[in-house]
Design goal:
By secondary structure, the chain is an alpha+beta fold. The chain has helices at 3-14, 17-22, 68-73; strands spanning 34-44, 51-56, 59-64, 86-93, 101-109, 112-115.
Length: 117
């Protein structure tokens, strides 16, 4: 095989990996909804998904939100997510119970609930 062919073959095999890693929600407990409520500790408004850290009953949780474009289009902008503000989320917890992570289905800020799916 020529070097060019080997390189093209390797690139074709590896190309799907970022998409698979990004869309791998099979690690979530989709059979149960987890509800958390508490103050925002940190905001990361970046692609591929915005994230917040939320404190609920003394435990810090990492919450994966929607892609930033979807968040903006639904009115949950970067300025709407303020450290110290209390929010409520409903979503699906990571199957690894040692990880305090939830993929949010919706978020309630100031009494207004926004669907993130």
């Amino acid at each position: 095989m020529t070097s060019w062919f080997k390189l093209a073959f390797a690139a074709a095999l590896l190309a799907p990996l970022p998409a698979a890693a990004h869309h791998g929600w099979s690690g979530q407990d989709n059979a149960h909804v987890t509800t958390l409520e508490g103050p925002i500790q940190a905001v990361r408004f970046r692609d591929p998904h915005a994230e917040i850290d939320l404190m609920d009953h003394g435990q810090k949780w990492t919450i994966t939100l929607a892609p930033t474009e979807r968040m903006d289009s639904r009115g949950v902008t970067q300025t709407a997510l303020k450290v110290g503000d209390t929010v409520k989320i409903n979503g699906h917890r990571n199957l690894d119970m040692t990880r305090y992570e939830v993929k949010a289905n919706d978020i309630t800020i100031g009494g207004k609930t926004t669907n993130l799916r």
